[in-house]
Amino acid sequence: MDGPRRVLVAVDDLFFLAKIQETARQLKIPIERVKTDRELLEKAATPPSLIILDLNSTALKPLATIAKIRHNPLLKKTPMIGFLNHLQADLKLKAQEAGCDLVMPRSAFSVNLPGLLRRHGLPEPA
After folding, report:
1. CB-based contact 110:19 (threshold 8 Å)
2. Please, are residues 9 and 20 in contact by the beta-carbon 8 Å criterion?
3. What is the dihedral sign for C-alpha 34, 40, 85, 76?
4. Mind listing the pLDDT tens digit of every residue in the chain (126 residues)?
5. Global pTM?
6. Using an 8 Å Cβ cutoff, are 101 and 119 in contact?
7. 3.10.50.40, 3.40.50.2300, 3.40.50.620, 3.30.70.240: which CATH number matches 7-121?
């Protein structure tokens, strides 16, 4: 893939979204915010390089959406990172079972965000 790759972000929290957007802007990685399950599935029709999901989202059904994404043959290998509040081991397990590749607490996600975006959002060396 030439040039920066696309990252889809499904995050309700506007302050947290701003943090993701600013980090992506500094790294020159294009991100697209999606607000609903339907919008995420529509925009993912052209496979992104990464999908970031807030597993505590109230605007979408994260577990059902993860399962739908994983049932799409074009998206089976698209990396998906979910974050959640601390002490939600049950939700973490359910998200992993549904097909989320990496699930981490919100604080760890924040710390690792630049590296995650670099790994999945920048073009691969030729």
Report:
1. yes
2. yes
3. negative
4. 444 488 999 999 999 999 999 999 999 999 999 999 999 999 998 999 999 999 999 989 999 999 999 999 999 899 999 999 988 999 999 999 999 999 999 999 999 999 999 998 776 655
5. 0.91
6. no
7. 3.40.50.2300
